[in-house]
Amino acid sequence: MNDQREGTLLQVIETKKTVVTLGPGGVGKTTISAALAIGAARTGRKVVVVTVDPAKRLASALGLESLSNTPTNIELPPGSKGTLHALMLDVQETFENMVKTYSSSQEQIDEIFANKIYQNLTQSLSGTQEYMAMERLWELHQDESFDLVVVDTPPSVGALDLLEAPKRLVSFLDNRVFQLLIKPVPLYLRPLSIATRTLLKTISKVVGSEVVTDAVEFFRAFSGIEEGFKARALEIGEILASENTCFIGVTSPQSLALKETVELNRRLIEGRLSLSALIVNRLTPQFTQESNLQKDNDLSATLQGSNDALAVLEENFKALQRSRKDEVSRVEKRLVDLFQVPFIFIDNQQEEVSTAAALDRLGRKILS
Fold first, then answer.
1. Which residues have C-beta within 8 Å of that of residue 152, sequence separation ≥ 6?
2. CA distance 313 to 299
3. Which GO terms label this protein's molecular function in UniProt (predicted)?
4. Closest CA relative to residue 339, chosen from 239, 263, 243, 283
5. pLDDT tens, position by position, 164-200
6. Could you read off the pLDDT of 297-330 as tens digits, one per residue?
């Protein structure tokens, strides 16, 4: 297993080439990813942050209306030593670029692009988005314009699908049925070919002969390209397993989020991966120093001339104290024994995080 537990989070973003954020939905993962990216850029790194989620959360966090598949330069706060770019994955554009890269001729490219199966592939086939995200990661990883790639993944299950996409693609391309569909059948395998055609004929009765014909034609047009896809998938797998890649978990103190985080950790271990840190986001804010909270058992003693309004304020304040204490206790009970990594607790932000300056402030809190 790749043990990535040493060093602070600041050291991580200063030294790694790839940072992947993972976690449940609704915990502020995209905002955290952007804040980490700005934090790394402040130290002097050339950073690109990419989101796989088709929602516009990354653009919103950066104060932009939209992002494309091409890196957009982000203006950084004063004092930053590096650069920051951001992009949102475009599955179709990335797939098209791969086909163009590995096709042997313009005729083959045109044949694939005209096929009905291909036209639906980038939007409907399970796993296409995940694999194209990994392809985009590879491209950014090779781009000398950047020395750090921060990847904002979909919620837990989607993130795991993302990490497993290269292995699944290699398995699919090695599948015997797939190979029979795209390559001429030797004479000694003719009986097997007949069996395959019989299977396709049976499938045709269910989904229609036109669909099967389009599929067979697509796979045969794909012949020769699959080796390039396979080689790239293996390279992406090596990047994910590299010591230069780290995984940062993001969660919240809510019970459902903690439950998903436990499952995420289990699946990561199965994949021989591990987290470098776990950020617990959106805690009830702590309004005074911990030392003062411990000393001031009776807040009214610090509020001279206490009246009814101050009494209500005191009760509200104590309720917030209890809420925060319960949240921290819940996190410790569910996660501390499972995650032997640094825990970083981040309060629920009192400002809307939708500008580079706000992200910079959040990034400083995370990395301090």
1. 21, 29, 30, 33, 34, 49, 50, 51, 52, 53, 58
2. 9
3. ATP binding; ATP hydrolysis activity
4. 263
5. 877 766 565 565 555 555 555 444 444 445 454 554 4
6. 555 555 555 566 677 777 888 888 899 999 999 9
Residue with token string 């045709």: 204
For the chain, state the CA radius of gyration.
25
Q: In this structure, are residues 103 and 109 in contact, taking their beta carbons and an 8 Å threshold?
A: yes
Q: Which residues pair with 250 in a beta bridge?
A: 279
Q: What CATH code is assigned to 9-115+129-162+243-286+299-367? A: 3.40.50.300
The residues near 89 (Cβ < 8 Å, ≥ 6 apart) are 50, 51, 52, 54, 69, 129, 132, 133, 136
What is the rounded CA–CA span in Å between residue 302 and residue 306? Answer: 9
Within 183-286, residue ranges assigned H as helices are: 190-207, 209-221, 225-241, 255-270
Q: Which strand (E) or helix (H) includes residue 113?
A: helix 106-114
- Domains of the chain, residue spans: 9-115+129-162+243-286+299-367
